[in-house]
């Protein structure tokens, strides 16, 4: 049984002035749409003030509404639902550069919770501030809309993972996806990326028992496909893992010529 994530006060982080080359949100949106200097400056401004949270902290609880969007600058978080009996299902990972629940306030309340899985640096953005940003910067609005489309595509892949793939295939696909997403925001080192998760976290993500997770990890290691050291994952044979998991990164990236296309419109609810 998994204990519910706690909700504790955040601690402000004292950092230097934001560097657009290191800000993961800017990196992510620039990979989708060409941003000008004014766009970058606006994203720098909205990325303050950062706050440091510990692991297992709720950012948004399912029974509560929220007037804020949450941006992750560092760390690892997730969307999850928890049954009354205690079982948890993780439905999505939030990685650095992700901006979540932009439209949550329009629903009145959340139908799921959002919480950290590791120590994380987050920024809360008031809905009106985000609406103003979108209205003044159409490039940012377009990039956020594209990011939403890729999040929806990722959800579809996770459904296929749970419904059709074996344990080995699920884990291979997930690891390839994580590496690709960290590479997109410049936070991977070669074929290595952060993985500050427990086996219970992986089980709640992949629909597997802790024993099955352990056996699958052991098999991946035995075949020389992955290396886990501390809180880091290294893919030793990326192509082979992609083959096992039927992983095609196209659902995470715009097709050739799509970057900067004007047809995507504004973010739903913020126009």
Structure summarized in a few sentences:
This protein has 271 residues and is α+β, with helices and mostly antiparallel strands.
Structural class: alpha+beta
The Cα radius of gyration reads 18 Å
Q: SSE order in H/E notation?
A: EHHEEEEEEHEEHHHEHHEEH
CATH-defined superfamily of the largest domain: Jelly Rolls
Number of domains: 2
Number of helices: 9
Distance N to C terminus: 42 Å
Q: How many beta-strand runs?
A: 12
**Shape call:** globular
CATH class of the largest domain, anyone?
A: Mainly Beta
- Provide the CATH architecture of the largest domain: Sandwich
Protein topology:
Elements: E1 11-12, H1 24-30, H2 37-46, E2 51-53, E3 58-60, E4 68-74, E5 77-82, E6 88-94, E7 99-100, H3 104-107, E8 113-116, E9 120-126, H4 127-136, H5 138-164, H6 167-184, E10 192-194, H7 199-206, H8 210-222, E11 226-229, E12 232-235, H9 238-245
Antiparallel strand pairs: 1-2, 2-9, 3-8, 4-7, 4-9, 5-6, 5-8, 10-12, 11-12
Helix pairs in contact: 4-5, 6-8, 6-9, 7-8
Written account of the structure:
This protein has helices at residues 24-30, 37-46, 104-107, 127-136, 138-164, 167-184, 199-206, 210-222, 238-245, and strands at 11-12, 51-53, 58-60, 68-74, 77-82, 88-94, 99-100, 113-116, 120-126, 192-194, 226-229, 232-235. It is α+β, with helices and mostly antiparallel strands and 271 residues long. It folds into two domains: 13-138, Jelly Rolls, CATH 2.60.120; 156-252, Arc Repressor Mutant, subunit A (Orthogonal Bundle). Strands 1-2-9-4-7 form a five-stranded antiparallel beta sheet. The protein has a four-stranded antiparallel beta sheet with strand order 3-8-5-6. A hairpin with a 2-residue loop joins strand 11 and strand 12 (232-235). The termini are far apart.
